[in-house]
Amino acid sequence: MALRVRFTHPLRSFVASAELTVSRGETLALVGPSGAGKTTTLRVVAGLLRPQSGTVTIGETVLLDTQRGHDVPPEQRRVGYLFQEYALFPHLDVFGNVRFGARDRSRVDDLLERFRIGHLARVRVNELSGGERQRVALARALARDPAVLLLDEPLSALDAHTRAGVRGELFGLLHSLALPTLLVTHDFEDAATLADRVGVISDGRILQLGSPMELVSVPVDPFVATLTGAMLLAGCVVGREDGLTEVALDNGFTAWSADSGVGRVHVAVYPWDVSLGPAVQGDSRLNHFTGAITSIAPIGNRVRVQVGPVVAEITGVSADRLELRPGAIATASFKATATRLFPADSGR
Amino acid sequence: MLVVTTGVALLFLVLPIVAVFLRVPLSDLLSALGSSAALDAIRVTAETIAFAMVLILVFGTPAAYWISSRRGAVRDVVVTLVELPLVLPPAVAGIGLLVAFGRAGLLGGTVDALGIDIAFTKVAVILAVTFVASPFFVRTAVAAFEAVDPTLPAAARTLGAGPGRVFFRVMLPLAKGGLGAGAALAFARGLGEFGATIMFAGSLQGVTQTLSLAIYEQFDVDLNVALAISALLIVVSAVVLLSVKLMTRWHSGSGSLILSAPSSRQRN
């Protein structure tokens, strides 16, 4: 049973709208900055917000049709909602929280066992760790045997070291539940790991919807590019030769792109397409930025190194081999084919 | 310097309370409490305030819940109307009740036709107490409901709870500390009610003479009885104040009072 949502609803400074279909077993993530209208979509599906106009259906069941004045109240919709910060009932223990939504006791016992929280049944929720709270909230959301699952920032309340583990567990859970799942996050990496398709949302509008790979390889605008991790270098197109566009960057450097463009542009490049090492002169397929290293930040087994205006993401092994240290001179290089050009006035 | 001024202020506030207990021996106070005037007043007060509290809780709680769920002009008007008795001089409340519910009042004819006479009866005492005390409860109750995280009732609805179940299973338990504190404040205000009651209900011993009215009357008759009732009201007021403090602390704390120490779970 697929979930179909289509709505328009004015918010304080923009009109939020969306048109989405999430099929059975599919996870669709909405990614964007806070206040972009992501949670609005979840509230419309759950029935907590009645949009100015729109429809919500699960399979053949119509939950909302504003044109026909049809609006099923939230308590009659089969929707499992994991709230941001989880919204556990502080006056109930773990058992009481899961029991709240369940039809019978055996369902509660099954869920407590499935989420390995049986031993916490009689513990008050404010005594739980972040990871435990998340498992209780998931168990509670599933207690009513929902037909769709809504997850609002499921990982943002967790600290960094539990996050990766919980993300893996959540991925497994979503896979085994095989429900249409709508997930909302501000973190593209979370979206890319958990979701089959990702919609980038800004000011209430979905800018691009596609697989995580599609978004990274062909972002439609600079906003999507930066959200998926690209850096933007502002500059002006000054010429074109051998199928490459020459861009005079505002910072004094010159960049070459295989993409075409005119006038003021943003050159987008992903840090993992940038390498560090000795300069190779006279190769126009490569862009070179030589400068002092201003920062070195390890991320997992990779290292992000800032050289002048460019950030390079390289493996920890090569970082060790290059003996990088702040202040040292290095050359960052990336291919002209690894860049994309966006007109400077597109997006924001 | 600060210590001295604080000391003077404290002394000024505590002295009249202490004086009530020191004027005559404690045994005289206790025997004066056994006088018929005191016993009648205790009975009248207990009956009327119990009725008034039931009215305040039964009508005030849903009203407060409704107010807490509304925003905008309608809510502001309703809140102002509810708060009006709070700032109204009690004598004005008494006159108002009299011309509304009295025999020649606005609803006098209607009430008369039903064969009920309100003014100068226990019903009048109950109405007067309810009128002046209810704002204390409603105000505190609105704040208590508003203090509940709005995602909790939303979560309850997505878990299959209709509006009624949300109220009784989520809102009421989470607001109970504030509701209890509000009820205690209303109770204390009702206990001290004097002006509106004496105008609307009179001061008939055994019928409408509450403890506060009895103090005033016994002041001329038997000072010991007046002192004894005062002492009783001081004790009751102190207990109410203490319970408000405990309830608001309970409300703002994480759980029950006994469990508020973080290590208590491990010790058990």
Number of strands of chain B: 0
Oligomeric state as shown: heterodimer
* Sheet/helix structural class of chain B: mainly alpha
Largest interface: A-B, 28 and 20 residues
Our estimate of the beta-strand percent of chain A is 35-45%
Could you give the order of the helices and strands of chain B? HHHHHHHHHHHHH
- Strands of chain A, total number: 21
Cα-to-Cα separation, first versus last residue of chain A:
37 Å
The unreliable regions of chain B are 253-268
Give Rg of chain B in angstroms: 22 Å
Any idea what the shape of chain A is? globular
Coarse shape of chain B? globular
Whole-number mean pLDDT of chain B: 88
For the largest beta-sheet of chain B, the strand count, sense and barrel status come to: none
- Stretches of chain A where pLDDT is under 50 for at least 5 consecutive residues are none
Main sheet: strand order of chain A: 7-8-9-3-10-11
Measured distance between first and last alpha carbons of chain B? 48 Å
Q: Report strand % of chain B.
A: under 5%
Question: What is shown here, in short?
Answer:
The complex is a heterodimer of chains A (348) and B (268). In chain A, 24% of the residues lie in helices and 36% in strands.
